[in-house]
Write a structure and sequence with these properties.
With 95 residues, this protein is mainly beta. It contains 1 helix and 7 strands. The strands form 2 sheets. The protein has a 5-stranded mixed sheet with strand order 3-4-5-6-7, with helices on one face. The protein has a two-stranded antiparallel ribbon with strand order 1-2. The protein starts with a strand and ends with a strand.
Length: 95
């Protein structure tokens, strides 16, 4: 998904975001599920992306999945973090 989305919720209203991948219903303004991966960003930046999606979507984004990839020698490993909404409050769950 290389579609650019404009967030609508404060304090991120007007911020433009392009997820690594996402799922959205036809004609929905924002995806309901967002995937962000670490290959090109710091993990701190990735967590900020999750916060922007969750808080800036006014409830449209229900979950953000972060994947932190690391390569050591010839092995690739990943850490997954899931951010979901409990009521209106985003919550982090390590998977």
């Amino acid at each position: 998904m290389s579609i650019q989305f404009r967030l609508v919720g404060a304090p991120f209203a007007g911020t433009k975001k392009v997820p690594n991948a996402g799922v959205r219903a036809r004609n929905a303004p924002l995806p309901t599920l967002v995937f962000e991966s670490l290959w090109t960003q710091s993990f701190r930046s990735l967590k900020l992306d999750a916060d922007k999606w969750m808080r800036g979507s006014n409830g449209a984004v229900n979950a953000v999945i972060l994947v932190n990839w690391a390569r050591k020698n010839k092995t690739v490993r990943g850490t997954v973090e899931l951010y979901t909404r409990r009521g209106s409050i985003p919550q982090q769950t390590e998977v």
